[in-house]
Each structure stands twice: as structure tokens, then as C-alpha cells.
């Protein structure tokens, strides 16, 4: 069997120098022998050095090729076993690096494909999309967003975020409120938020702006904004409100005259009429009163939605508000055989708003609860402090409302629920007006089911230190 090159190297490296020393020590008196020994040592050293240097150069060359990405590079081989091991190690490194490079290229191609798919999807959307990271740096946008905001794609993506916000602020109808409204989207990072953006340039637009957090296993990573053009819908709503307002104004005068005439007839010569004729007049009067209430509610709703309803802003005591509303409904509750309970937490701060309008909301919720509650039941009104502000709630024990009908409850003329609710009188505008009033105060109103029966209506109002732009109040009196 052939001995490995490393053993031959030991023989050459040990025995030859020994022979040389022996020659020098034993045969010093033979110059020819000494010279021959020295020559052999020099030749062996040169041969070994050349072999070592060639293998080292080969290893260096192979390592440099691997470092530059030439993973197919290999050493030419060496008869020395250790260099063979080094050659094998470099071969393994090259093969592993080649495999990782292939995997990395595949991952990059997959990422590029996913990126192209992502942009294809967002560019196909009819809504504008903006994607921000946690530092509010713009990461992505689609062409629809650039069109809605009045930018080119290159300008939108290459602009500094601060410059982009500054440009948007200048294009808004109310530039002084732009940053305040935008900050509301980032105020609670893990919650969605929605508002409207009114642009005057490059053309008049009304955009519904909705933002939601981007969440993965590491938490919130950013925020995505969607912009929906609702200009046409807003214009239709405005025209509808203007028509309703105009029609209501035109109806109010003749209805008031008819109502007054019927009252005079019933209080005067109406007493001389036959019972059947008097009953007809009373029915006419009752329906006229209902029409007057409907016209007044339509006018109020139109004014609130258009921002023309005057609000008198002042501190409002929660306890006094709730107790006065409950006291005012005691008469209706007694006729219906129901009982009203009132619970107000201690230490509640004053609300900031219009007391008459807030009283209207509480009274409307109480009135609905009393009307829809069976005799012998309890209607509970409560006021308590929550992390978001003061919550006032009204709970009844009526037939309840299906959860899939909750969204319709606050629409004008919407009547939902059981047969008892549909046959109860009313204009169908009370909850719509209540929602409009609460939203004008910067709050929100909601409905929840109760177990086993009934509903819970509640509205929440925050406690600002002073009126903010979201409170669209005017300190004037009609």
C-alpha cells in the first residue's frame, strides 16, 4: 500500500537532516561528503518549499474566487494529505455557497414576483392607497392615490414625507385642521380611524380617508391609508338636504295655519258639532300635529348635517342632565306602566356642549325605551366614566333588535325590530337626529343587545380642555 505523502514529508524532513548532521559530525575530514550532504539538504528544502508554495498559491487563488462568487472554483490538488484536506474543505465551502446563492436568487425572484403582484393589486384598486411605516415614512402608493391627491407617481413616491404633508395641507379646504385630523389617525396605533378630507386643488374633491394598522408577529409595523372619492355622493346628499330643507320650509307655513284653524274649530264651535264630525276634526288635528313634528325634525336634521344648527357651548352637568331627562319622562312611563331608574357615578366631570341638544338626545333614548318596554318593566339610565370619556346609557327590557339591523337604526325613517316597534308612533328621525347631534359634539352613539331581551343605547363624549376643531360649534343663538 502506498504511504501517504505526509509520511514521506516526515522522512524527508527528519532523516535527511540527521544524515547531513551525521555526515558533518563523522566525516568532517571528507570535504566531498560534506558538500554532497549540503547539496542534498538544499535540494530537498527547495523541493519542499516549492511544493508548499504552489499548494498555498492554489489555496489562496481558490479562496479568492469563492469570495467573488465563483463557487465552482476548486484546488488543483496536492500530493500532501493536509493540502488535500484543505482542498476538500474549500470544495465543501464552494458547494454550500453555491447552494445558498441559488436559494438566495430564488428568494429574490420570489420577492420580486410578490412585489409585482402587490403593485398590480393596489394599482387595480379604485381607492387610493398609502402605506406608512411607524416613523411615518411613505413606503408605497398606487396610481389612484396619486390621481386623487393631484400628484404624479414619481412626485408622490420621491417626495419627503414632511413636504408631502405640507403640500396636502395647502390643498385642503381647511388647512389649519389638516395636521390635527391626521394626528388622530396615529393617536391609537392599533385601532382604525376614519374621517373626510376636503380638497380644493387641483380640483374640488371630498375623500373618505380610512386608516388601519399593519400588524404582524412583531406588533404594529405601520399604517395603511385608503382614500375613496365620495364627491358625487356628498353632492347628492347636499342636494337632498337642500331639497328637504326647502320643502320643509314651504310645508311649515300651511301646516301651521291648518293646525291653528283646527285648534280654533275644536275649541270654539266644534263643541256644537255632532260627535262623528268632532272625531274627524280631532283625527285631522292629531295628524296635522304629527306632520308638524315631522317637518320640524326634517328641518333640524338638515340644519345639523349641514352645520347650520346653532350650538351654544357651555359646561353641562351630567347628573343634572340625566336627572332632568328622567324626571321629564316620568309621566309617559306611568301611562305605560314602566319604571325609570337613574344611576350617576360620583365625580363625573362636566361635559362641553349644548345642553338643550344633549337633553334632546337623552330624552329621545328614554322615550323610545319607555314606548318599547312591556308594562311592569324597568328602564335604566346610567352615567359613568370610561377611559375614553363619559358614557350615558339607556337600557330597556323590550323585544330587542336583531344585530344585523343595528346599522339601519340611525338612518332617517328607518323602522326596524318587532311588530310592537313598527306600530309605535313616531317620525323615524329621532335616532338619526340623535346621532347627528352626538357626532357634532365629537362623540359616538351605539346600540347593543341585552340578555335575555331588550337593548342598550349609549353615547360617549370625550372631555376636551377646550373646544377642538372636531367640535363644530358656533357660540351664537338662533
Please provide a brief summary of the model.
The protein has 15 helices and twelve strands.
Notes on the structure:
The chain has helices at 5-26, 31-67, 81-124, 143-149, 153-158, 161-171, 178-187, 231-267, 275-306, 318-328, 330-336, 355-371, 406-409, 419-423, 430-440; strands at 128-133, 138-141, 193-199, 205-216, 219-229, 314-316, 339-344, 351-353, 378-386, 389-395, 444-449, 455-461. With 478 residues, the protein is an alpha+beta fold. The protein folds into four domains: 5-99, no CATH class; 126-229, PAS domain (Beta-Lactamase, 2-Layer Sandwich), CATH 3.30.450.20; 236-306, Orthogonal Bundle (Helix Hairpins), CATH 1.10.287; 314-461, Heat Shock Protein 90 (2-Layer Sandwich). It has a five-stranded antiparallel β-sheet, sandwiched between helices.
Which properties best describe this structure?
478 residues; alpha+beta; Beta-Lactamase; Helix Hairpins; five-stranded mixed sheet; 12 strands; elongated; disordered N terminus; disordered C terminus
Topology:
Blueprint: H1 5-26, H2 31-67, H3 81-124, E1 128-133, E2 138-141, H4 143-149, H5 153-158, H6 161-171, H7 178-187, E3 193-199, E4 205-216, E5 219-229, H8 231-267, H9 275-306, E6 314-316, H10 318-328, H11 330-336, E7 339-344, E8 351-353, H12 355-371, E9 378-386, E10 389-395, H13 406-409, H14 419-423, H15 430-440, E11 444-449, E12 455-461
Helix pairs in contact: 1-2, 2-3, 8-9, 9-15, 10-12, 12-15
